[in-house]
Design a protein that fits this description.
Blueprint: H1 2-30, H2 37-40, H3 52-65, H4 69-79, E1 83-85, H5 90-93, H6 102-113, H7 115-127, H8 134-155, H9 178-196, H10 216-233, H11 239-249, E2 262-264, H12 278-284, E3 287-289, H13 291-299, H14 305-308, E4 351-354, H15 356-368, H16 376-390, H17 395-404, H18 414-428, H19 433-443, H20 474-479, H21 481-491
Antiparallel strand pairs: 1-3, 2-4
């Protein structure tokens, strides 16, 4: 990764220099005409630092827009059995290996040299010196935690403590164990919550916060909600530690309403920077809804069926099977299957990375297993309600669904209730397919059976088992091999069916 980090370092210096020049020119352009020629002709390039708010806004938007074309679409929408494609991206659905291709390299390195680099720079700038600001530092650390958590969930051990610090001349970052990464993020979030719950808003990012518009209370709620997600995700790997963190989370406010969701809002615009990035991706790729997803919504009379799934030419809701091999595809007419409804890739659709519905479901799960107070069924039904409200389902339909459908109320054994909660989370994550995939690995629900019929399905390199992680790219082996080798020794074989640390519930 040395070469890429070096290029990133040069690019970053050029970027800051160029942006500084642009900012100064704009400032000069609107300044009073009474300024002297001496003031007007001061060299803008004499400035050596870019104010942290510019880096913060850029970093947040990069994380939110992300590599959805690969992370979410190519891999995780199909691993989660929500989408299927007939393009070259179908190789992921076939459980094939991308180790020697540029796809893994791009996803892995792009986050370090773009979003994480910018956010880490904000953390560094606001920690001490000229731009020292504990409130901004707390917000930046929360933001960095989101991206680092997503990366470790997909790869396992990754560079964390030394990650995205090429500007500090760390060109060969060591890989950290996922357990250590999780526990440090959880600690960072706790500290950030402590700062934000008593912070002065004037010290925040007024005018530069694209997520919560400098509402520090919402940032604190998100940090606590995100902390709960992480604690629940590792509860099977480290039950005692997880239980303690869950208890701590219960002492602070959570995201409860959709206007508190953590994400970016978009708009109907001709400017690609202002509209949902899913819009452009969908224009260039052909996708169908998964048979597993469609059949579940149909079987449970779920009102989200008609909102998320388009009908076929015959007026049916019909999903396409995941994993069909090349030979068997000739038996199916692609145009006979349901596509995603346009709402899923509309220009104005927000890009959320945590929602109220998920938080209510996590609380329901915690209550079910006596890890937190509350009535599990009431919390569960509130989670369903919030997601239906997000998709603008009419209140009467929401009430009818909650009152009449067996899946809309917890029932049966504790394990069945857990299955219900996990399955509703799977639905509510759409279109955040990365979290849908991670939650399947964590909970085992919905069950993705091992493919055994090789005449119909591709068994890939996993013998038909749902992949567990992404592999390290071949470029990492070329540029940072010693550290990659240590990670492989600690974590296990660098294969897509090697589980990450928290994935222990099979």
């Amino acid at each position: 990764m040395k070469a890429h980090m070096y290029k990133a370092k040069i690019f970053y210096k050029m970027f800051r220099r160029s942006l500084l020049f642009t900012v100064i020119l704009l400032t000069v352009g609107i300044s009073s005409c009474n300024e002297s020629l001496i003031d007007m002709n001061e060299n803008p390039l004499a400035l050596s630092e870019l104010p942290d708010e510019y880096l913060f806004t850029t970093g947040v938007r990069q994380i939110m827009r992300g590599d959805i074309g690969d992370y979410d679409l190519r891999f995780n929408s199909q691993y989660a059995h929500i989408y299927v494609t007939n393009s070259e991206m179908r190789a992921s659905d076939s459980y094939k290996d991308f180790h020697t291709q540029d796809i893994y390299r791009f996803m892995f390195e792009n986050n370090y040299i773009n979003s994480l680099r910018n956010i880490n720079e904000v953390v560094s700038l606001t920690a001490e010196g000229k731009y020292e600001n504990p409130v901004r530092n707390a917000i930046a650390r929360i933001t960095a935690s989101v991206e680092f958590a997503r990366m470790t969930d997909l790869w396992g051990d990754i560079p964390y403590f030394e990650g995205a610090k090429g500007l500090d001349n760390i060109l060969y970052p060591k890989y950290d164990r996922q357990e250590e990464i999780y526990k440090d993020i959880i600690s960072q979030l706790k500290n950030a919550i402590g700062v934000l719950e008593k912070a002065d808003p004037s010290m925040g990012y007024a005018g530069a916060d694209p997520v919560y518009d400098n509402n520090l209370g919402k940032w604190a709620k998100f940090a606590n909600s995100f902390r709960l997600r992480l604690a629940m995700r590792i509860r099977f790997a480290d039950p005692a530690y997880s239980a303690g963190i869950i208890t701590e989370c219960m002492a602070h406010p959570f995201i409860e309403w959709n206007n508190e969701n953590f994400g970016l809002k978009f708009q109907e615009s001709e400017n690609s920077e202002l509209y949902n990035p899913w819009y452009d991706i969908r224009k260039h790729q052909d996708w169908k809804m998964s048979d597993k997803f469609v059949e579940w919504l149909k079987a449970t009379n779920d009102p989200r069926l008609e909102i998320l799934v388009d009908t076929t030419k015959a007026g049916e809701y019909k999903g396409y099977l995941n994993g069909i091999n090349d030979q068997a595809t000739s038996q199916y007419q692609w145009t006979d299957f349901s596509a995603p409804k346009p709402i899923l890739y509309s220009k104005s659709q927000p890009r959320n990375m945590m929602t109220a519905s998920e938080v209510w479901f996590l609380r329901a799960e915690a209550a079910l297993f006596n890890l937190a107070p509350g009535n599990a069924n009431e919390l569960y039904q509130t989670g369903i309600r919030r997601n239906l409200e997000f998709w603008n389902v009419q209140p009467a339909k929401i009430d009818n669904y909650l009152n009449t459908q067996p899946e809309a109320a917890l029932n049966g054994t504790t394990e069945n209730k857990f299955r219900q909660i996990a399955t509703q989370m799977w639905i509510a994550f759409v279109p955040d397919f990365t979290e849908a995939y991670s939650n399947i690995r964590r909970t085992g629900y919905p069950v993705i059976p091992q493919r055994t019929d090789s005449e119909t399905f591709s068994l890939g390199v996993t013998n038909g088992i749902l992949p567990k992680r992404f592999k390290y790219s071949s470029s990492e082996y070329r540029t940072n091999k010693a550290n990659v080798d240590i990670a492989v020794e600690n974590q296990g074989p660098d294969l897509i069916d090697t589980p990450v640390w928290w994935d222990v519930r099979d």
